[in-house]
Every structure is written in structure tokens, then in C-alpha cells.
Design brief:
Elements lengths: L1 H18 L5 E9 L12 E9 L2 E9 L5 E8 L9 E4 L10 E8 L8 H6 L4 H13 L3 E7 L7 E4 L1 E3 L2 H21 L1
Antiparallel strand pairs: 1-2, 1-9, 2-3, 3-6, 4-5, 4-7, 7-8
């Protein structure tokens, strides 16, 4: 009987894994604050960043408020350990300037050299393909951050390390598998 339950569970899990659609998007998010800057800015400003990767397109949405001085730019920096200042990888073209709160939303074609800062492109083989590979590796390794630069803090007033957000279907599936394994273990005891 135990063999039959184990075999049935394996078959069901195989079917579930085969039929659950895989997400075409990878999502990264962060909370922006002055405490995350290196060195800390002491700013009371806050914000959020949501970065969604769909194929070769990076969609960026930023909200920020409470900055101590007008902003001047926003970027994604990459690729190094947490707590280290890294070079700008993707400058946010069209970022609202001269304000202390606002929103920003834009899409970047990662196959285009124009999506990267020239120095980042050069440092990664001089091609969009090399820059994209480095950026994606940095994002996936938790070695990229978003920040907002201001007049008082030209190196960055608020910052947040981008972290992958688990896909809901994957989290649900993992929970189901763990529940099934717990049930199987319980029956064995």
C-alpha cells in the first residue's frame, strides 16, 4: 500500500509540474531609503522600485517621496556585493527632475546598447549582449540596486537592493508539495 501511495503522489506531482504554466516574467522589488545608501544619507525620503523582466525588456516603476532636496536622476547600479557602491548600469531616461516626490515608469530594451550607460557597456565587452548578461547575472544574484540621486546627495539619497519576488504559482506549488510530503510522512509514522 505504501508503494502505491508514493507512486501515485509522484505521478500527481509530475502532472502538476508539467501543466503549471511557467511565468514569462521575473520580478524584482525593493524599498528605497536613506539607511540603504553607502554611506547612509540620513534622509527621511522613502520609495519603492518594481523591476519586471519580460524576455529582453526591463520594465521599471519607481515611486518616491520625502526627499530632502530636489532629485536629479535615478538608476540601476550593478554588479557587486550588498553594501558596496557600484557603477550605473541602466540610467532612467526621462526620470522626473527637480522634485522631492514623484513616480517614474519606463521600459528598456536590453538588446539595445542605448539602454546602458556607456561605461557599463564598455566594462562588459562593449556589446549590449555582454551588458545584458552582466545585468541579468547581477539581478539574479542580488547584486543590483536602484537609487535616486538628489542635489544634496549627488551619490544617492535613497537606495534599495533589488531582490527577486517569488512567483505565486511556484510558491503555491511548493507549498502543495511540502503538504503532500508531510502527509506521507505522517501516514508512515
Amino acid at each position: 500500500m505504501h508503494f502505491l501511495v508514493k507512486t501515485s503522489l509522484t505521478a500527481v506531482l509530475g502532472i502538476v509540474f508539467a501543466t503549471v504554466p511557467m511565468s514569462a516574467a521575473t520580478i524584482f522589488s525593493t524599498t528605497l531609503s536613506g539607511a540603504n545608501e553607502v554611506p547612509q544619507s540620513g534622509s527621511a525620503g522613502t520609495g519603492t522600485a518594481l523591476v519586471t523582466l519580460v524576455a529582453d525588456v526591463l520594465n521599471v516603476s519607481i515611486t518616491f517621496s520625502g526627499l530632502g532636496s530636489p532629485d536629479g536622476a535615478g538608476h540601476i547600479h550593478c554588479c557587486g556585493p550588498v553594501g558596496v557602491n557600484e557603477p550605473i548600469a541602466v540610467p532612467f531616461t526621462g526620470f522626473p527632475t527637480g522634485v522631492t516626490s514623484g513616480t517614474y515608469s519606463s521600459s528598456f530594451d536590453l538588446t539595445s546598447a542605448a539602454s546602458y550607460l556607456g561605461a557599463f557597456l564598455t566594462a562588459n565587452g562593449g556589446t549590449a549582449a555582454g551588458a545584458e548578461a552582466a545585468l541579468l547575472a547581477g539581478l539574479n544574484a542580488g547584486q543590483a540596486y536602484a537609487n535616486v540621486h538628489t542635489t544634496n546627495f549627488p551619490g544617492g539619497e535613497i537606495r534599495g537592493q533589488l531582490a527577486a519576488v517569488p512567483e505565486p504559482a511556484t510558491a503555491l506549488l511548493a507549498g502543495g508539495v511540502l503538504a503532500a510530503l508531510a502527509l506521507l510522512r505522517r501516514k508512515r509514522a
